Amino acid sequence: MPASPCGDWRRDWDSESDRQAGRGLKIQESETVKKQQVLFLCTGNYYRSRFAEELFNRLALPGAAGWQASSRALAENLVNRNVGPISPHTLDGLAARQIDVPFPRRFPRALQSYELDAAQHVVALNEREHRPMIAQRFPDWVNSIEYWAFEDVDIASPAEILPRLETAVRDLIERLMRQV
Q1: Is the dihedral of CA 157, 162, 163, 168 positive or negative?
Q2: Is 74 exposed, middle or buried (0-12, 13-18, 19+ CB in 10 A)?
Q3: 105 and 84 in contact (C-beta within 8 Å)?
Q4: Tens digits of residue pLDDT in 136-163
Q5: 27-48 burial string, b = 16+ CB within 10 Å, else e?
Q6: For 3, which DSSP code?
Q7: Least C-beta-crowded within 10 Å: which of 55, 131, 133, 145?
Q8: In terms of Cα–Cα distance, which of 87, 16, 17, 105 is closest to 45?
Q9: CB atoms within 10 A of CB 112
Q10: pTM of the model
Q11: Contact 123, 70 (CB under 8 A)
Q12: Radius of gyration of the chain (CA)
């Protein structure tokens, strides 16, 4: 049989350097890799939850490969009051950390109940603000969610919130990795 340009398909990795770089993983067609889901919630899915989602996914790549984050809005009616699909504060905060948000950038999405069911870990970004919203829309979930205390941009500046939020996301990744 002629050699494949992709290497020997019977090995798991093409080489040690590919394994360390996360390239070349070969999975049998019958196998599936299911990532566990972290779900970040905030009011509009425009600023805080999007920052947490993008940061988590970037930081989790090397060590928490079994986890992936997404984010959703608790507001039922996403009024078109935002400029663009994601907050400029979020983009600036991520850029300062050398994290690019790929194009096309998605617009905020409202939370659906099936997304709570699919998540293994759910975090609401501000308990004071979000617990009542969760109690109203998803009462069975109100005590199953981890609540943080990150105010929106109208109360606290991104310069204050984003570094603290980064620390909380890093701490969450460490906790999730200890559970494995």
Answers
A1: positive
A2: buried
A3: yes
A4: 999 999 999 999 999 999 999 999 999 9
A5: eeeeeeeeeeebbbbbbbbbbb
A6: P
A7: 131
A8: 87
A9: 11
A10: 0.79
A11: no
A12: 19
Q: Which amino acid is at 165?
A: L
Cα dihedral sign, 88-94-98-99: negative
* Beta-sheet pairing, 121-124 with 67-73: unpaired
Ramachandran assignment for 28, one of left (phi > 0), alpha (psi -120 to 50 degrees), beta (any other) = beta
**DSSP code of 118?**
H
Q: Within a 13 Å sphere around the CA of 152, how many CA atoms are in the beta-carbon half?
A: 14
Q: Up-side HSE of residue 51: CA atoms within 13 Å toward CB?
A: 31
Quote the CA–CA distance of 170 and 173 in Å, as a whole number: 5
- Comparing CA positions, the residue from 56, 72, 84, 90 lying closest to residue 158 is 90
**pLDDT tens per residue, range 104-115:** 999 999 999 999
